[in-house]
Amino acid sequence: MSNINILIVEDEAAIRGMLTIVLEQAGFSPIAAAEVDSAQKILADTFPDLILLDWMLPGISGVEWARRLKKDPSYRELPIILLTARGEEEDKVRGLEIGADDYLTKPFSPKELVARIRAVLRRSGKLQGGTQIVLGNLILDTEQHRLTIGEKQLDVSPTEFRLMQFFMTHPDKVFSRTQLLDQVWGRSVYIEERTVDVHIRRLRKILGDYGKEELVQTVRGFGYRFSLID
């Protein structure tokens, strides 16, 4: 995995150093910059596989730079994960609306960071090979396209498999129907929001057969959350 280059853009030296160490330990090749001007110079010489971008930066903000990159045909497909201390729902939605592929609210654990990076890289086709996502006794195998609870394999459709993959790599986070449509179905496909509800109901029924219906939770007024915590 050492051929996966990740550009870190973070102005706080301590966080930048921590992110560099975490990514190196995970087998990635990190390149760090303290602000957008330095990051732009790095881009002129190196095309990374993913950008880990702080929302608030001196000069040009991270979210503004992300917006510009996503409008540039040369960088439109370059995955971007925003790092933000902003926890408000409207800020998260704004981050995804400008084209960011994911967001992570500080503070976060190194394990979650690496899981989210790998999930975005898999979706973009930059990370190949069989991997398993494990939560409790749930195992999702992306190579064999299997979802199991204990030793029992669940009969899920391709869409429900992608939905579970997204949920399992983003546990305990609340997502609106629009966000789920963008992340699971894709931004280029027009599908009504109620389609999400239909697949959530099917997923709950399948999980309910194994006593796990409560894993997919409705957050009234916001959307859905996947959590092992009641």
TrEMBL record:
Pfam families on file: Response_reg (PF00072), Trans_reg_C (PF00486)
Organism: Methyloglobulus morosus KoM1
Name the record gives this protein: Phosphate regulon transcriptional regulatory protein PhoB
Function in brief: This protein is a positive regulator for the phosphate regulon. Transcription of this operon is positively regulated by PhoB and PhoR when phosphate is limited.
CDD domains, per the entry: REC_OmpR_PhoB, trans_reg_C
Domain OmpR/PhoB-type: 130-228
GO MF entry, a single one: phosphorelay response regulator activity
Principal place of residence: cytoplasm
Any one annotated GO CC term: protein-DNA complex
Record keywords: Activator, Cytoplasm, DNA-binding, Phosphate transport, Phosphoprotein, Transcription, Transcription regulation, Transport, Two-component regulatory system
Modified residues (4-aspartylphosphate): D54
All residue ranges annotated as the Response regulatory domain in the record: 5-121
Gene: phoB
Subcellular location: Cytoplasm
GO biological process entries: phosphate ion transport; regulation of DNA-templated transcription
Gene3D superfamilies to which the protein is assigned, alphabetical: 3.40.50.2300, 6.10.250.690, Winged helix-like DNA-binding domain superfamily/Winged helix DNA-binding domain (1.10.10.10)
PANTHER family in the cross-refs: PHOSPHATE REGULON TRANSCRIPTIONAL REGULATORY PROTEIN PHOB (PTHR48111:SF40), REGULATOR OF RPOS (PTHR48111)
UniProt DNA-binding region: 130-228
